[in-house]
Amino acid sequence: MPRTFPCPRCGEPSVWEGNEFRPFCSERCKLIDLGAWANDEYRLPTQDAPQHDKGSQNEDDYED
Q1: N or C: which end of the chain has fewer CB within 10 A?
Q2: What are phi and psi of 23, to 5 degrees?
Q3: Concatenated DSSP letters of 35-52
């Protein structure tokens, strides 16, 4: 009996061996996931670095 694992898109059981859509269970799940990736739905949250205002340099900002 082939080992199954859940489809990363829908959660239905899927097999690895002989599955042309792996790790997905079907072409439908594969295309839905590709569309989500193309629409930037898998972006990781980031925190932008603080921006240094060039117009307000203090005397401490200069090196001797």
Answers
A1: C
A2: -85, 5
A3: HHHHTTTTPPP--PPPPP
